[in-house]
Amino acid sequence: MDDAASPTASGLPSAPAEVGATGADALREAAETMRAVRDRCVWTQQIGHHDLVPYLVEESAELIDAVEEGTRADLREELGDLLWQVLFHAEIAARDPDDPFDIDDVARGLTEKMVRRHPHVFAGAVANTPEEVLVHWNAAKAAEKHTRTSVLDGVSERMPSLALAQKVLGKAAQVGVSAPSLREESEDAPGTEADLGAALLDLVAVARARGWDAERALRVQLRGLEAEVRAAERPPAH
């Protein structure tokens, strides 16, 4: 990146050159602005990767709200706030004394990954259906993550429990393991997503009435399911 803008005649730092200028690279301007903030903002200089985690969670949640309930202006703003988090992390990483990388390295890595995972777009592979696209994606991902020994490797335990449950169930299905409640068809299964939401809320209400921790209850079940998955992946004993 270019050096940050020099101080003005008043002694105050100027904004990065050409911020907002017509035809300028808006993403480059944002990165340069982040660099100037890191250089000149005392609060920002004290922030590390771990300090940013709560803000990342908050901004991600606000983006979800904008997608599900907000206006187009809300969506644009929240995407910008989340982009700022990416730029912030990259600028912190750029100053690491042992293993530095910057936003350009992040962008190059992303571009390379997307090209690898879309051989039907950038190479000679063919994919005429979403299912065929997924086959190419999963094959490329498997090649990238060849050191992983379980389908559960890379699944973050920090995901919200319901999202984690859905993810683990998908991984479990890949090795032929299903949740106990899915091993028999239930006549009371919700018929729509709205019915599912109501059923989940009812279950949480039951947990509250009985003094149970719904979050803990689900995570305990997930740990059991994860143990089944890992057991299914182990080669049979001879």
TrEMBL record:
Asked if the keyword Hydrolase belongs to this entry, the reply reads: yes
Per the UniProt entry, the Enzyme Commission number(s) are: 3.6.1.8
Annotated Gene Ontology MF terms? ATP diphosphatase activity
Q: GO biological process: any one? A: dUTP catabolic process
Which top class of enzyme applies to this chain?
A: hydrolase
Keywords, ordered alphabetically: Hydrolase
Q: Which residues form the NTP pyrophosphohydrolase MazG-like domain?
A: 49-122
Keyword hit for Lyase: no
Would you say which domain of life the source belongs to? Bacteria
Q: Which InterPro entries match?
A: MazG-like_dom (IPR004518), NTP-PPase_MazG-like_N (IPR048015), NTP_PyrPHydrolase_MazG (IPR011551)
Protein's UniProt name: Nucleoside triphosphate pyrophosphohydrolase
